[in-house]
Amino acid sequence: MTTTAHDAIRQQVGKIVEGIQAKDLDALRRIYAADVVSFDVEPPLQHVGVEAKLKNWARAFTLFSEVRYEVRDLTLTVGDDIAFGHCFGRLSGTLGDGTATNGMWVRATFGFRKIEGAWLIVHDQASVPLDMPSGRGVVDLEP
Questions:
Q1: Which residues constitute the domain of residue 7?
Q2: Domain CATH for 101
Q3: 66-106 pLDDT tens trace
Q4: pTM, full prediction
């Protein structure tokens, strides 16, 4: 566990924020491993491969004329070539019709692997708590 590895991974998370806010799929592509597996909040149960992950982001970007992404409480555990982190994330902004939205907070988990000297995301998961009696996601919680 080294400070430089922690810093490099935090920089990668910062690049996620920048890429999302710029709606820059090429920038996001450089952060994910080619074989990334993503468990996102929308179907299907998993998105496999960087193209599937980017397709998911592209769909999200079509909803927004301006998009913001916020990360809170990022915690990392770093080994020599494997790391994981968790945080809260919120996608918000202005929708295509001009409506401002505060979005919703999700629980986010990242798995990183050091590949050819770069920390890349090999797994991510975004989720919301479930209200068991109704079977619906709870999307109005704040961290």
A1: 3-137
A2: 3.10.450.50
A3: 999 999 999 999 999 999 999 999 999 999 999 999 999 99
A4: 0.92
